Amino acid sequence: MTFEKLVPNVFYVDIKDGLKFFVDCLCFTVGYSEIESKNPFCVLEKDSLRIHLFQNAELANEHYPEFRLETKNIEDVYNKVATSHPEFLHPNLKVITLRPWTAKEFALKDKQVGVIIQQW
Description:
With 120 residues, this protein is an alpha/beta fold.
């Protein structure tokens, strides 16, 4: 059995919040869009990653996912985010920190999701 990707589904009360976080802040692009439909949905892409965003208030209120994005250039990512969208820096890990498990990390959060940016 072989898997190649993990593609998370993330639910927002208002999908526009997810677009601001993932597209505007983290530079994902919209690969597929049903944003204007009765049940707004889109697929976001960056490099070999995909995230499915859904607008669904009921599910958004039940879930607060957290996941990690690994990079080889954490300083570049941090500088871009800290300059363009500092409001997304997580108050508990708002600067690049060398963790005991030897990874450098900083964290982001918006209304619906937590993301740890990590470099091994």
